[in-house]
Amino acid sequence: MNDRAPQAVDRQLPTEEARDLISLVREMVRRDIAPATAEEEEAGRFPRETFTRLSESGLLGLPYPVEYGGGDQPYEVYLQVLEELAAARLTVGLGVSVHTLACHALVAFGTDEQRAAHLPAMTGGGLLGAYGLSEPAAGSDAASLRTRARRDGDDWVIDGSKAWITHGGIADFYTVMARTGEDGPRGITAFLVPGDAPGLSAAAPERKMGMKGSPTAQIHLDGVRVGDDRRLGDEGQGFAVALAALDSGRLGIAACATGVAQAALDAALEYASGRRQFGRPIADFQGLRFLLADMATQVEAGRALYLAAAQLRDAGLPFSRQAAMAKLFCTDAAMKVTTDAVQVLGGYGYTADFPVERLMREAKVLQIVEGTNQIQRMVIARHLAGPESR
């Protein structure tokens, strides 16, 4: 291999346990994930067996309590695991992030009895989760959602549709936000809905430009009945539940974006070091050297930003503004870095024989999910200048 080929990221980790964890993840990536990525993404094949192995290895509950099957890892460690997974295959990295997001309401707002009943299977029992907030007519304006849950004795009956659901149709459980009261954010409640509940169905998966191996689908709830013991938090608290989860979820997207950007940088560096024109590697030419330097700086800056936000979260300090900044910067950087990687490879970058065209297509969705980057700018501006005048 060329001596200028990329090396593994030199990570600053807080404990020896965390270093062992990253080594475990890298071995799983090398053995189980990376070899099949191109073929399975092209075929649109979801790697459920990979998620089973991740669950068995304790990687689906890393930031959650050990007494419920979690790993008790700080977010700064969990996010670096996500980055490693996403660099190998975004379908896997983003899938772990979404699963962790789907568990958040139970961990943060569930009762001890609810956590004991459900969380071990969700973190280490092979189950896969999905998060149901967005709807066909309620995306960025999530507080206007129309899915409704009504009381029927000790049960709730849920009717409505959710849109853009990662793992829609294959998830074992859904964290669903439904309206139980007045219009607006105060009338929403969170529920834990089994994936096999009668009345729950999924539409055909969306036909996407990237992440073809990760199913994204509408789900329909037609008289889905769940007991009150599956209500998470108080009635009317659901929008706060959703926002609390999204702050953490945005950090997951930032880490995934950094992984995608790192993978594109690595591919570009390896190609530029081996490709010869005019008698020398193209990495010797200043135009390419400066481009690679800019790409590397974007990746390092994004990593530093999401880790700084994670450290605030781990310390119990407010981190909403920093999470929005990390999501905004890292996903915009991923789009820029992957586009530049295609340019480094020239005509080869535009072919499916090299991974950079897939990485560029995948990077685009990260600017949209978990709140578009326009919404992130609104969130950041509100922290800086206060709410908009009405």
Model description:
The protein is of the alpha+beta class and 390 residues long. The chain is 51% helix and 14% strand. It is built from eleven helices and ten strands. The strands form three sheets. The chain has a four-stranded mixed β-sheet. Strand 9 and strand 10 (280-281) form a beta hairpin. It is globular and about 80 Å long. The mean pLDDT is 95.
If you compute it from the alpha carbons, what radius of gyration comes out, rounded to the nearest whole angstrom? Answer: 21 Å
What is the averaged pLDDT score? 95
Which secondary-structure class do the elements indicate?
alpha+beta
In spatial order, strands of the major sheet run 1-4-5-8
Q: What fraction of residues sit in β-strands?
A: 5-15%
The count of helical stretches stands at 11
Poorly predicted sequence stretches spanning 5 or more consecutive residues:
none
Helix content: 40-55%
Distance linking N and C termini: 61 Å
SSE pattern: HHHHHHEEEEEEEEHEEHHHH
Record field, number of beta strands: 10
Shape: globular
Main sheet record: 4 strands, mixed
List the defining traits of the structure above.
390 residues; 4-stranded antiparallel sheet; 11 helices; 51% helix
List the helices and strands and how they pair.
Layout: H1 16-33, H2 37-43, H3 48-56, H4 75-88, H5 90-109, H6 112-124, E1 129-132, E2 148-152, E3 155-166, E4 173-179, E5 188-194, E6 200-202, E7 216-227, E8 231-232, H7 238-274, E9 276-277, E10 280-281, H8 286-314, H9 320-345, H10 356-366, H11 373-385
Parallel strand pairs: 1-4
Antiparallel strand pairs: 2-3, 3-7, 4-5, 5-8, 6-7, 9-10
